[in-house]
Amino acid sequence: MGDLTELGRPPAAVVLDLDDTLYPQAAYLYGAARAVGRAGAAVGLDPIRLARAVRRQLIAGSDRGGTIDRALAAYGLAPDRAGELVPGLVAAFTAYQPKRLPHYPGVTAALARLRERYPLACLTDGNPLIQRAKLAATGLADWFTAVVITDELGGRAARKPHPGGLQHAAGLLGVAPEDLVMIGDRPGKDVAIADVLGARSIRVRTGEYADAPDEPAATAVVDDLAAAVALLT
Ligand SMILES: [Mg+2]
After folding, report:
1. How far apart are CA 47 and CA 40, in angstroms?
2. In terms of domains, do 127 and 160 share one?
3. pLDDT band at 2; cut points 50, 70, 90
4. pLDDT of residue 1
């Protein structure tokens, strides 16, 4: 992709997704799977084998729900025993708070450059406690004027591509939604939400969905966040 001219007029502000856009979500999921393993050890399960079973389910699709149930089935537990253990293991998963998460190369410098020109917001879906812990663990929270976690606006139903989150971010930034550029890794969420509100979008090809088709098509598609920022600066 080329330069800003491909995006047309400069945006008034930029909104960025968190997971698989600023940092590889796999790093978080790996730690969360280990936390489930430790909780399993406390009730007599093999922590290594359980963590591996959880990790396999997460790799198969971190978005699907029912991860722990499927992991316990794969581990070989009988359904009634698994049913007893699920609530505690799910609690261990959601309570996991990483101390540090690695970000993609060049992300800090890219955000610094972007912040010189535009107010920034972070827009993310998920359990608010977990999403806040992840953002804190990346060490990137201070770059953002606003952080919007869609689940705080209306639960799972408010997740992208529901337009409420991006609308809310625009309000906090004091700009019209159509003057925003949304940067994110998932066409069906980050590009789609921009489309709904007439905003522009840059898709980054990082993380779990890097090979997903460009549907809907973004205004621009680039390899990673550093390349997205290069388009805007
Ligand atoms: Mg994402």
Report:
1. 6
2. yes
3. very low
4. 39
CA of 57 to the centre of ligand 1 (A): 18
Strand order of the sheet with strand 146-149? 146-149, 120-124, 13-16, 180-184, 200-204, 220-222
Q: What is the CA(83)–ligand 1 centre distance, in A?
A: 31
Give the pLDDT mean for 92-121.
Answer: 96
Domain count along the chain: 2
Q: 21 C-alpha to center of ligand 1: Å?
A: 5
C-alpha 208 – ligand 1 centre gap (Å): 9
| Ligand 1 centroid, distance to 73 Cα (angstroms) | 28
- Could you list the residue range(s) of the whole structural domain that residue 122 is in? 4-24+102-232
Of the residues 95, 116, 132, the one at which a domain ends: 95
Ligand 1 centroid, distance to 65 Cα (angstroms):
16
Residues 72-96: tens digit of each pLDDT: 999 999 999 999 999 999 999 999 9
Query: Residue 76 C-alpha to ligand 1 middle, in angstroms?
Result: 32
* H or E element that contains 122: strand 120-124
pLDDT band for position 63 (50/70/90)? Answer: confident
DSSP, residue by residue, 196-232: HHT-EEEEE--STTTTS--SSPPSEEESSHHHHHHHH
Cα(16) to ligand 1 centroid in Å equals 9
133 and 70 co-located in one domain: no
